Amino acid sequence: MESTNRYITIKTHINHGEPKESHFELKTAAFGLSVELGSNDVIVKNLYVSIDPYQINRMKSYSPSQKAINFAVGIALGEVIDAYGVGRVVASGNPKFEKDDLVAGLITWGEYSKIKDGNMLNKLDPMGFPLTYHVGILGFSGLTAYGGFFKVCKPTKGEKVFVSAAAGSVGNLVGQYAKLFGCYVVGCAGSKKKVELLKEQLGFDEAFNYKEEKDLKSTLKRLFPDGIDIYFDNVGGEMLKVAVSNMNTFGRVAVCGIISEYTDEKRAAPDMIDVVYKRITIRGFLATDYMNAHADFMSTTCDYLRTAKIKVLEDITPGVESIPSAFIGLFHGDNVGKKIVKIANE
Amino acid sequence: MESTNRYITIKTHINHGEPKESHFELKTAAFGLSVELGSNDVIVKNLYVSIDPYQINRMKSYSPSQKAINFAVGIALGEVIDAYGVGRVVASGNPKFEKDDLVAGLITWGEYSKIKDGNMLNKLDPMGFPLTYHVGILGFSGLTAYGGFFKVCKPTKGEKVFVSAAAGSVGNLVGQYAKLFGCYVVGCAGSKKKVELLKEQLGFDEAFNYKEEKDLKSTLKRLFPDGIDIYFDNVGGEMLKVAVSNMNTFGRVAVCGIISEYTDEKRAAPDMIDVVYKRITIRGFLATDYMNAHADFMSTTCDYLRTAKIKVLEDITPGVESIPSAFIGLFHGDNVGKKIVKIANE
User: Fold this and answer.
1) Sequential DSSP letters for A296-343
2) DSSP β-ladder status, B247-255 and B281-284
3) Of A132, A238, A307, B133, which shows the fewest CB atoms inside 10 Å?
């Protein structure tokens, strides 16, 4: 059975600056909806795909040596772009999957995905939750927040937590987990509306619009009179520097993302004298390192969802053709919460 | 009993640039060699004092808020400067010490120390070793190297270790511990003589003179074809940056000191994208955090000394008046190994 697949690809590498519409192309290609005999492949109709800032790092051109050390496999020009998402099996040569199964895993920024050997794909039991939850809060954004906060930051109750990009897909969950755990939580975001959301809807103790603060170091000093114990860093750059300067002894920085540096090579170095004397730990991490916390993450988060203790922030745009603008918008702070593109009706 | 005490002090704060002779003053003051009745104080005749780069951080002027967060208590102009060392008790009001006891602990850059309540002072059993060993390899330099390498870096056999300032008081020991533990070890230093010493006497696998390398990133790439697992950082700045860029996944940086930044505000920021994707941990530490490893440290190191498996690098200058030049020399790489000033004959 032959159909067509519309998918997004990059026309050029994006080595400097922000992504633009002109970097992307919506391609249409013939696509087989059945699997060859003896193949282990799985054909998936994509329903929802995750739009994440880290993809920009895969859109850069790397030297072979950089490729070897860089976890994020580069995206080839003109090729399909893999991304986390939820879909429905159309055809399967793999005994683990049957037609019409719901699946979650590494699908593509397109209408259909052909998943070699069913790798990085799992059957999905929605457990009564909307499918979009399985892209965001119950997917990698949630695991990133949970693993990063509990396993990397190793919080204790009452500690003072700062989260940047706090209205983003991961940041909002870190803040909520931290509040539910018993921490004092301050978030920063890039608009008044987001700041209100953090304080009024998500229960953050304080929040501020970093664009309106003249001296971020003083802002943090004011909002953390007793210092910062944990900084969950989604942005890097200047914010990392000022957070370190306001940090308490034995403070921990979990470096989740550094969106400010993905498109801009300006870096701001934290004061390493502070790092030594205050014995600060700065640790980069990826959610995949915390798969052993997945069961805990799921049971805790599902429980919070069922008891309405945690709020779900989703920002959903329809249509495969909206992927480039959804992605570009991440770098302008357009999204509130998890950015998802809905590809097809369930 | 009244005598005089000659001691070193600072005339001005040293907020920028390197320390100079003109910053220091040798003062002479009347000094009581007996303790008042009912006092818990201990009077110590200083024998050997430690000369360490971190003292520069105590010679800066801090704002009150900086003082509150900075472990290193600032040195007041004209006052005695405390420093680690070994001495002999002249008089004691403290039942823990008797006249003629050898002691190690926080004494002063002077001929005599009056130790309030005997704080930060311990009786010293030389265990057959020269007293200078108890200032360096069996003192805080040794504990810093041991705690930093084993507890902060958490090495496994066969890992690739890079040490900067590798001919310095701490660096040379880190390299030796790492070799004895079964790691591949590369050190950098600032002269040809030191590089030869590292390779020929201390058993480093490789060493280089950072002043002669045009492109440090390439140098590390050449000497670590399989990447760096552990970087023991004594210098900060550019070296930290290039080490991170050559680091393997789950690499660890123990930040012990950052001598390049003590006197120069130029910083070089590591690439945080590397930190995230390679899940690198950068951790500042102080030896005092690893007092619980002190017994292990002593038994391991004494054993290495008795079996001549570890070499002792000491650089000793005589006379209290030589303290400023000894200290200034640290910032020019004049010292080879542990810099100690001998104050008096044993």
Assistant:
1) HHHHHHHHHHHTT-S---EEEEESGGGHHHHHHHHTTT---BEEEEE-
2) parallel
3) A307
pLDDT at A73 (0 to 100): 77
* H/E stretch holding A180: helix A171-181
Q: Chain B: which residues have CB within 8 Å of chain A? A: 57, 65, 69-72, 221, 227, 236, 240, 248-249, 255-258, 261-262, 267-286, 289
For B6, the 3-state DSSP assignment is strand
Considering Cα of A13, then A14, then A16, then A21, what sign does the dihedral take? Answer: positive
pLDDT digit string, tens, across residues A179-192: 999 999 999 999 99
How near does any CA of chain B get to the CA of A171, in Å? 16
The angle formed by the CA atoms of residues B90, B94 and B95, to the nearest 5 degrees, is: 110
Amino acid at the residue B50:
S
Residue showing tokens 């009706």: A345
Nearest residue on chain B to A237, alpha-carbon basis: B272
Number of helices (H), then strands (E), belonging to chain A: the values are 11, 15
- Residue B45, C-beta contacts closer than 8 angstroms, at least 6 positions apart: B87, B88, B89, B90, B111, B112, B344
Residues B53-108: tens digit of each pLDDT = 999 989 988 765 555 444 467 899 999 999 999 999 999 999 999 999 999 999 99
Nearest by CB to residue B275, choosing from A227, A276, A284, is A284
Report the distance separating Cα B222 and Cα A316, nearest Å.
48
Among partner residues B221, B269, B276, which is closest to A269 by beta-carbon distance?
B269
Backbone angles phi, psi at B253, to 5 degrees: -115, 120
Interface A-B: count of C-beta contacts within 8 A: 112
User: Which residue is listed with tokens 């309106």?
Assistant: A212
Closest CA to B172 of B199, B134, B132: B199
Element (H, E) at B325: helix B323-330
Distance from CA of B149 to the nearest CA of A (A): 15
Of B120, B340, B140, B95, which Cα lies nearest the Cα of B256?
B140
Q: How far is CA A257 from CA A160, A228, B279, B321, in A?
A: 20, 19, 11, 52
Q: Compute the mean pLDDT over every residue in chain A, rounded to the nearest whole number.
A: 94
Res A68: pLDDT: 45
Amino acid, res. B281: T
- Mutate: best of A276, A278, A289, partner B, most B CBs <10 A: A276
- Give the pLDDT of residue B68: 45
Per DSSP (E only), the strands in chain B are 2-10, 24-32, 42-50, 82-92, 102-108, 112-115, 121-123, 160-163, 184-189, 206-209, 228-233, 247-255, 281-284, 314-318, 338-342
Residue B257: closest C-alpha in chain A: A276
Nearest residue, CB atoms, A282 vs list B221, B258, B282: B282
* Chain B residues touching A71 at Cβ < 8 A: 249, 277-278
What is the mean predicted confidence (pLDDT) over B278-307?
96
Choose among B167, B157, B176: nearest CA to B196: B167
Report pLDDT digits (tens) over B39-58: 999 999 999 999 999 999 89
